[in-house]
Each structure stands twice: as structure tokens, then as C-alpha cells.
């Protein structure tokens, strides 16, 4: 079945550092891949999504692309700020017909130190 | 932005008792979801619900689980009876359309502790 693997459980950076978080996925369909961000005390909220391999999703200074050849999906930001500290989840949703289920990675807790 | 509210934020219950988790979805949304997250693990899909019916459910959605949204009120997840392995954070979500067509909005979760 479909799955998403997110191996980086925790990442600690300093302000203005470069962020790179990677996920790998497994699916037999043509998925949409997403990144969610969860701030303390809140539910996950959509950060960005990429519907086609090799296309780029951009939001709030974050970028994401997915590589169908390596079945990997990454999130990056050129210069992180303390306010970016949160948990970041990658997720996959299949193309129809089974498109009503999100498969999540286990999350990467990002801590940005001043 | 749109908000999904979950009540309560934390529920402690004895094993074998019934529990109802409440979700107030975004007002014009049509699809509703429950996800389960055991501490340190990924969020996993339980069930989605549309037009008064369960559309899909996972193997985690045991026979002891049920969902409903009577008359447009709260979307609820009921567990009867509860078991120790039901301890987790339960996230409710809603969307206007199905998952791939629109954004899911999540609540902050209800932490269920079964003793």
C-alpha cells in the first residue's frame, strides 16, 4: 500500500541557515505530495502541495519538489527564522479513485535558535 | 483562516467506558475526517464521511468506532468500549471537496488517555 517515510525526526538550525527536509514515498498511482506544518497547540495546516513530478510548490519562502525517479520529496527554505520552529509533515494523496485518504510521514521537528 | 474546533482538548477515561470526541468543522465544508496519532508516530487515516455516510475507513477503524453528524451539528467519533490501545491524539479535519481537490483543515486534536 501507499506509504511515506520521513527519517529526520528532529532538526536544529540557527537563524538564516538553509533548511532541507526529505521524504520518500511509495505508491502505485500518480500522487499529489504535500507538506503540512504544525505549530504548538494547533492542528496541522497545509504549507504547500505539488501535483506533478518535477514541478515546484512555493509558499511563504518554502519550496518543494518531488522526483518520481527517486520517489523522493523534499522541502527547503533558504534562510530559516525562529518563527519557522514547528513540526513539518510530508503527506501523499493518491490520484482517483482512492483520493480521499492522506498518508502522512512521522514528522520533523524543526527548532530554529536565535 | 477557517477553523476546525475540537472539544475537549484532553479526555481521560477508564478502559471499557464509552467516549465521544466532538468536532466542529468549517461551516461550508462537506467532507469530514478523523485521523489518529499515537505518540511519536505518524498520523493515520481512520475514516472519512460525506453526505451522512462513511465513505472510506481504514483497518484502524474498529467495530467499536462509529461516526455521525446529526443535523449539521458536531461531527463525532464515538468509541464504545474503549481499549488501552485507543490512547492517542485524534485529529478531526474537514474539506469542501474530496482530499485531492481541496485543502483539509485540521483541528488541534483531542488527546485521549485510556487508563
Strand content of chain B: over 45%
Number of separate helices of chain A: 0
| Helical residues, percent of chain A | under 10%
Give the helix/strand class of chain A.
Answer: mainly beta
Report the mean per-residue pLDDT of chain B as an integer.
Answer: 92
| Main beta-sheet strand count, sense and barrel state of chain B | 7 strands, mixed
Low-confidence stretches of chain A: none
Largest sheet of chain A: 6 strands, mixed
Cα-to-Cα separation, first versus last residue of chain B: 36 Å
State the order of secondary-structure elements of chain B, H for helix, E for strand: EEEEEEEEEEE
In percent, how much strand structure appears in the residues of chain A?
over 45%
**Strand element count of chain A:** 11
Radius of gyration of chain B: 13 Å
Main interface by residue count:
A-B, 25 and 28 residues
Poorly predicted regions of chain B are: none
What fraction, in percent, of the residue positions of chain B are helical? Answer: under 10%
Structural overview:
The complex is a heterodimer of chains A (114) and B (115). Chain A is mainly β and 114 residues long. Chain A has strands at residues 3-5, 10-14, 19-26, 32-38, 45-50, 56-59, 62-67, 72-77, 86-93, 102-104, 108-113. In chain A, strands 2, 4, 5, 9, 10 and 11 form a 6-stranded mixed beta sheet that branches. Chain A starts with a strand and ends with a strand. In chain B, strands 2, 4, 5, 6, 9, 10 and 11 form a 7-stranded mixed beta sheet that branches. A 4-stranded antiparallel beta sheet of chain B has the order 1-3-8-7, with no helix packed on it. In chain B, strand 7 (65-68) and strand 8 form a beta hairpin. Chain B has strands at 5-7, 10-13, 19-24, 31-37, 44-50, 53-57, 65-68, 75-79, 88-95, 105-106, 110-114. In chain B, 0% of the residues lie in helices and 49% in strands. The radius of gyration of chain B is 13 Å and the shape is globular. Chain B is mainly β. Classes of the chains: A mainly beta (114), B mainly beta (115). The A-B interface holds A 4, 6, 32, 36, 41-46, 89, 93-96, 98-107 and B 1, 4, 6, 31, 35, 40-45, 48, 55-56, 58, 91, 93, 98-101, 103-109.
